[in-house]
Amino acid sequence: MVKICCLGAGYVGGPTMAVIALKCPKIEVVVVDISTARISAWNSDQLPIYEPGLDEVVKECRGRNLFFSTDLEKHISEADIIFVSVNTPTKTCGLGAGKAADLTYWESAARMIADVSKSDKIVVEKSTVPVKTAEAIEKILTHNSKGINYQILSNPEFLAEGTAIQDLFNPDRVLIGGRETPEGRNAVQALKQVYANWVPEDRILTTNLWSAELSKLAANAFLAQRISSVNAISALCEATGADVAEVAYAVGKDTRIGPKFLNASVGFGGSCFQKDILNLVYICDCNGLPEVSEYWKQVVKINDYQKSRFVNRVVSSMFNTVAGKKIAVLGFAFKKDTGDTRETPAIDVCKGLLGDKAKVSIYDPQVTEDQIGRDLAMNKFDWDHPIHLQPMSPTAANKQVTVTWDAYEATKEAHGVCILTEWDEFKKLDYKKIYDGMQKPAFVFDGRNVVDAGKLREIGFIVYSIGKPL
Ligand code: NAD
Ligand code: UGA
After folding, report:
1. Distance 49 CA to ligand 2 centre (A)
2. Residues in contact with 56: Cβ distance below 8 Å, sequence separation at least 6, in sequence order
3. Is the pLDDT of residue 230 over 60?
4. Stretch 205-209: mean pLDDT, rounded?
5. Which domains can be identified in the chain, with CATH numbers?
6. Which ligand 1 atom is at minimum distance from the Cα of 271?
7. Could you say which residues bind NAD(+) here (predicted)?
8. Choice between 142 and 188, residue whose per-residue pLDDT is larger
9. Is the CB of 33 under 6 A from ligand 1?
10. Cα 33 to ligand 1 centroid, rounded to whole Å
């Protein structure tokens, strides 16, 4: 029986390993983590992350061939294949601060593997890492190897949150990069066999190590670039009377461009797009390619511009002041169907409104008050560094913020409503009831273009949608 161990029981490690266990009943999969709280949650009925379909998969395999444990040494030493899916945040200090990836967690994982291994291992990079990381990992492992043979593979993950299980069941592609030596090719084949249990052969791509590492950064940069492109056009739509939904539809009808990922928004969020582009920018700088670095930096700049443009629109529409006014924020997660708030545009929008002395009342169906308090109290890039994880109530952090468990409560007596996540339930709210409970004139700022602006205007709202005529 092949044994797999995965270091890192997060948004990637947990769902990915659960699906491998489901699809490969003959493989034993153990997910380990240094966080006891996370492992306890994986072993409970309240999983540490919200992801549609995940509960069912975990329930079916847990205790059969899927295990969660804090005993890193035991499971690393017993495994044939070790996935490393630890966090790779942006560095907050020192060389490359604000851009480069912080590989502290990765290096400590590699050192742990070197310390406890007693037999040959295939070590798989699952985390998103800078190009050439495999070389550094190889050095750490081989210099401490005690005669053990390690093969390093790059197998980046392309799942998106909210659709992780679907994406894992039916991936567009699985990418495996390895050394072009007989041992390297054997290792690639061994991992390919795991995925071949459910992924069609023609969707399993094999490349050299550096291509696999770079493809992940490039894919995220291309995806984020599409959003910044449509968001840049949304600003021009507002200035000219064009409608960004119509423009995006017309543009996307060109089969060379395609219709997906062209929804204008308040800005992209999530733990990876910004982090991975900044990482790409840093790698370009380090390789003496300032023009390429500038090109990609612009994707992040337009995203920041879009978020501040949104805040400016709220304040300027409300007679240039929101001081003392209640603003309801509907949605705090970075996208629907997840409770994840990492780099969510809601943080920047709320901080912007609070900076203008607004009173902010927040509702999100999946995000807790503690989480919102932590997010609003944190500095840029601190969120992915575990040391900062003390809970803090938002009321203690900032008296201007309240968190409610109901959209109607959040909007009661409010002067304006900002929709910042495209939760389906926000489309179905009783906006007449909301209007009746609000101060007048009542404003709606739809950062996700989810409501029917025409209908809301009929009720009496003043509505601002991204990239649409007023
Ligand atoms: P996460 O923060 O949710 O999980 C990482 C886990 O690793 C944490 O639970 C942490 O405690 C654990 N960890 C840290 N150091 C460890 C060590 N030495 N040994 C064992 N466990 C350790 O992060 P994530 O969202 O799962 O992302 C992990 C990686 O995958 C990142 O590189 C990210 O860029 C990449 N990625 C993420 C997504 C996504 O949707 N979140 C998608 C594709 C790729
Ligand atoms: C993204 C990629 O889609 C995954 O392929 C990748 O594996 C992952 O990053 C990663 O490396 O972490 P994720 O961040 O989970 O996945 O979610 P997306 O669906 O890509 O959305 C990212 C952000 O862009 C969200 O804030 C979303 O609301 C926004 N978005 C997305 C738009 O504003 N417009 C769109 O048309 C699409």
Report:
1. 17
2. none
3. yes
4. 97
5. 3-199 (3.40.50.720), 242-465 (3.40.50.720)
6. 41
7. 8-13, 33, 38, 86-90, 127-128, 161, 272-275, 342
8. 188
9. yes
10. 10
Nearest ligand to the CA atom of 384: 1
Ligand 1 centroid vs 7 CA: distance in angstroms? 9
For residue 183, the tally of other CB atoms under 10 A from its CB is: 14
Give the residue whose CA is nearest to atom 1 of ligand 1: 10
Confidence of residue 30 (pLDDT cuts 50, 70, 90): very high
| Active-site residue flag, 237 | no
State the pairing for strand pair 81-84/462-465. Answer: unpaired
Annotated binding-site positions: 8-13, 33, 38, 86-90, 127-128, 161, 272-275, 342
Burial degree of 374 (CB within 10 A; 0-12, 13-18, 19+) = buried
The pLDDT of residue 382 is 66
Flag whether pLDDT at 398 surpasses 70. Answer: no
Residue nearest atom 34 in ligand 1 by C-alpha distance: 128
Among the options 5, 6, 24, 272, which is catalytic? 272
* ipTM computed for the complex: 0.98
Residues 197-205 have a mean pLDDT of: 98
Show the tokens assigned to 10: 């997060």
Which ligand 1 atom is the nearest neighbour of the CA of 161? 40
What is the signed CA dihedral for 160, 70, 42, 128, rounded to 10 degrees? 0
Q: 261 CA to middle of ligand 2, Å?
A: 8
| Each residue's pLDDT tens digit, 63-82 | 999 999 999 999 999 999 99
The tens digit of pLDDT for each residue in 131-142 reads 999 999 999 998
Distance 270 CA to ligand 2 centre (A): 7
Q: Is the CB of 305 under 6 A from ligand 2?
A: no
Protein residue with least CA distance to atom 37, ligand 1: 12
pLDDT at 210: 96
User: Ligand 2, residues 128, 229, 310, 334: which to mutate, most atoms within 8 A of Cβ?
Assistant: 334
